[in-house]
Protein backbone atom coordinates (compact mmCIF):
# COMPACT_ATOMS: atom_id res chain seq x y z
CA UNK A 1 0.00 0.00 0.00
CA UNK A 2 1.19 3.51 -0.72
CA UNK A 3 2.88 5.21 2.26
CA UNK A 4 0.86 8.40 1.96
CA UNK A 5 -2.34 6.38 1.72
CA UNK A 6 -1.57 4.24 4.77
CA UNK A 7 -0.64 7.19 7.02
CA UNK A 8 -3.05 9.92 5.94
CA UNK A 9 -5.74 8.04 4.01
CA UNK A 10 -5.51 10.58 1.17
CA UNK A 11 -5.44 9.30 -2.36
CA UNK A 12 -2.09 9.95 -4.09
CA UNK A 13 -3.75 11.28 -7.27
CA UNK A 14 -7.34 12.39 -6.65
CA UNK A 15 -8.31 15.60 -4.82
CA UNK A 16 -10.89 15.80 -2.04
CA UNK A 17 -11.10 12.11 -1.15
CA UNK A 18 -9.60 9.80 1.45
CA UNK A 19 -9.78 6.20 2.51
CA UNK A 20 -11.57 5.37 5.73
CA UNK A 21 -12.02 1.76 6.86
CA UNK A 22 -11.66 0.41 3.32
CA UNK A 23 -14.16 2.81 1.75
CA UNK A 24 -13.61 6.11 0.02
CA UNK A 25 -15.11 9.30 1.40
CA UNK A 26 -15.43 12.67 -0.28
CA UNK A 27 -15.88 16.10 1.24
CA UNK A 28 -15.18 19.67 0.23
CA UNK A 29 -14.54 22.86 2.13
CA UNK A 30 -16.93 25.67 1.39
CA UNK A 31 -15.20 28.78 -0.01
CA UNK A 32 -14.37 31.43 2.62
CA UNK A 33 -15.70 29.19 5.42
CA UNK A 34 -14.23 26.66 7.81
CA UNK A 35 -17.11 24.24 7.34
CA UNK A 36 -17.07 21.26 4.99
CA UNK A 37 -19.79 19.63 2.93
CA UNK A 38 -19.93 15.86 3.32
CA UNK A 39 -20.33 14.29 -0.14
CA UNK A 40 -20.66 10.64 0.79
CA UNK A 41 -18.93 7.29 1.14
CA UNK A 42 -18.15 5.24 -1.98
CA UNK A 43 -16.75 1.80 -2.75
CA UNK A 44 -13.93 3.04 -5.02
CA UNK A 45 -11.83 6.19 -5.37
CA UNK A 46 -13.11 7.07 -8.85
CA UNK A 47 -16.69 7.43 -7.65
CA UNK A 48 -15.61 9.58 -4.69
CA UNK A 49 -13.45 11.72 -7.01
CA UNK A 50 -16.40 12.27 -9.38
CA UNK A 51 -18.54 13.36 -6.41
CA UNK A 52 -15.83 15.83 -5.43
CA UNK A 53 -15.65 17.17 -8.99
CA UNK A 54 -19.35 18.08 -9.06
CA UNK A 55 -19.09 19.82 -5.70
CA UNK A 56 -15.99 21.72 -6.82
CA UNK A 57 -17.76 22.85 -10.00
CA UNK A 58 -20.81 23.94 -8.02
CA UNK A 59 -18.77 25.94 -5.50
CA UNK A 60 -15.82 27.21 -7.55
CA UNK A 61 -17.02 27.10 -11.16
CA UNK A 62 -14.42 27.07 -13.90
CA UNK A 63 -11.68 27.83 -11.34
CA UNK A 64 -12.12 24.35 -9.80
CA UNK A 65 -9.30 21.85 -9.85
CA UNK A 66 -10.95 18.65 -11.14
CA UNK A 67 -10.02 14.99 -10.97
CA UNK A 68 -11.73 14.24 -14.30
CA UNK A 69 -11.77 17.49 -16.32
CA UNK A 70 -12.90 15.64 -19.48
CA UNK A 71 -16.15 14.63 -17.76
CA UNK A 72 -17.08 18.10 -16.50
CA UNK A 73 -19.68 18.59 -19.25
CA UNK A 74 -21.39 15.28 -18.47
CA UNK A 75 -22.21 16.07 -14.82
CA UNK A 76 -25.53 17.55 -13.76
CA UNK A 77 -24.72 20.51 -11.54
CA UNK A 78 -26.96 21.40 -8.59
CA UNK A 79 -29.45 24.20 -9.08
CA UNK A 80 -28.12 26.02 -6.02
CA UNK A 81 -24.94 25.88 -3.93
CA UNK A 82 -26.83 24.57 -0.89
CA UNK A 83 -25.16 21.53 0.76
CA UNK A 84 -28.20 19.29 0.23
CA UNK A 85 -28.34 20.00 -3.50
CA UNK A 86 -24.58 19.54 -3.81
CA UNK A 87 -24.75 16.17 -2.00
CA UNK A 88 -27.50 14.96 -4.35
CA UNK A 89 -25.58 16.04 -7.46
CA UNK A 90 -22.40 14.44 -6.05
CA UNK A 91 -24.23 11.13 -5.61
CA UNK A 92 -25.49 11.30 -9.21
CA UNK A 93 -21.95 11.99 -10.47
CA UNK A 94 -20.66 8.98 -8.53
CA UNK A 95 -23.33 6.78 -10.11
CA UNK A 96 -22.42 8.15 -13.54
CA UNK A 97 -18.78 7.28 -12.87
CA UNK A 98 -19.88 3.79 -11.84
CA UNK A 99 -21.58 3.40 -15.24
CA UNK A 100 -18.47 4.67 -17.06
CA UNK A 101 -16.30 2.21 -15.13
CA UNK A 102 -18.68 -0.67 -15.87
CA UNK A 103 -18.68 0.20 -19.58
CA UNK A 104 -14.87 0.32 -19.60
CA UNK A 105 -14.68 -3.07 -17.86
CA UNK A 106 -17.07 -4.59 -20.39
CA UNK A 107 -15.06 -3.15 -23.27
CA UNK A 108 -11.84 -4.63 -21.84
CA UNK A 109 -13.48 -8.01 -21.26
CA UNK A 110 -14.91 -8.36 -24.76
CA UNK A 111 -13.98 -11.55 -26.53
CA UNK A 112 -10.57 -11.49 -28.21
CA UNK A 113 -10.74 -11.31 -31.99
CA UNK A 114 -7.71 -12.52 -33.91
CA UNK A 115 -7.70 -10.10 -36.84
CA UNK A 116 -4.65 -11.76 -38.37
CA UNK A 117 -6.56 -15.02 -38.61
CA UNK A 118 -9.67 -13.34 -40.04
CA UNK A 119 -7.80 -11.47 -42.76
CA UNK A 120 -5.09 -14.13 -43.19
CA UNK A 121 -2.57 -11.35 -42.57
CA UNK A 122 0.69 -13.34 -42.51
CA UNK A 123 -0.15 -14.90 -45.88
CA UNK A 124 -1.42 -11.58 -47.24
CA UNK A 125 1.91 -9.87 -46.58
CA UNK A 126 3.84 -12.77 -48.15
CA UNK A 127 1.58 -12.68 -51.22
CA UNK A 128 2.10 -8.92 -51.58
CA UNK A 129 5.88 -9.34 -51.36
CA UNK A 130 5.84 -12.11 -53.97
CA UNK A 131 3.67 -9.97 -56.23
CA UNK A 132 6.28 -7.23 -56.24
CA UNK A 133 8.90 -9.69 -57.49
CA UNK A 134 6.94 -10.70 -60.60
CA UNK A 135 7.85 -9.38 -64.02
CA UNK A 136 5.20 -7.38 -65.86
CA UNK A 137 3.19 -9.37 -68.41
CA UNK A 138 4.74 -9.64 -71.85
CA UNK A 139 3.04 -7.57 -74.52
CA UNK A 140 2.35 -9.27 -77.79
CA UNK A 141 1.63 -7.47 -81.04
CA UNK A 142 -0.90 -8.83 -83.51
CA UNK A 143 1.53 -8.65 -86.39
CA UNK A 144 5.31 -9.00 -86.49
CA UNK A 145 6.05 -5.31 -86.12
CA UNK A 146 7.76 -4.27 -82.88
CA UNK A 147 6.17 -1.64 -80.71
CA UNK A 148 8.81 0.91 -81.75
CA UNK A 149 7.78 0.66 -85.40
CA UNK A 150 4.05 0.75 -84.81
CA UNK A 151 2.23 4.02 -85.42
CA UNK A 152 -0.93 2.67 -83.78
CA UNK A 153 0.86 1.40 -80.64
CA UNK A 154 -1.48 3.11 -78.19
CA UNK A 155 -4.24 0.68 -79.13
CA UNK A 156 -2.03 -2.23 -78.13
CA UNK A 157 -0.79 -0.57 -74.95
CA UNK A 158 -4.29 0.02 -73.55
CA UNK A 159 -5.99 -3.08 -74.93
CA UNK A 160 -5.92 -5.16 -71.74
TrEMBL record:
Residues 13-69 form the AP2/ERF domain. The keyword Transcription applies. It is found in: Nucleus. InterPro entries: AP2/ERF_dom, AP2/ERF_dom_sf, DNA-bd_dom_sf, DRE1A-I. Its main location: nucleus. Keywords: Activator, DNA-binding, Nucleus, Transcription, Transcription regulation. It comes from the Eukaryota. GO terms for molecular function: DNA binding; DNA-binding transcription factor activity. One of its GO terms (cellular component) is nucleus. Belongs to the AP2/ERF transcription factor family. ERF subfamily. This is AP2/ERF domain-containing protein. It comes from Tagetes erecta (African marigold). The lineage of its organism: Eukaryota, Viridiplantae, Streptophyta, Embryophyta, Tracheophyta.
Amino acid sequence: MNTSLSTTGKHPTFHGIRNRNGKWVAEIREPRKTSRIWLGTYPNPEMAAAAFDVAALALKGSEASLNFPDLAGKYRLPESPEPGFIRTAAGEAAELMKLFMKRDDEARNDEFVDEEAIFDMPKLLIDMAEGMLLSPPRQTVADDRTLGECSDCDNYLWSY
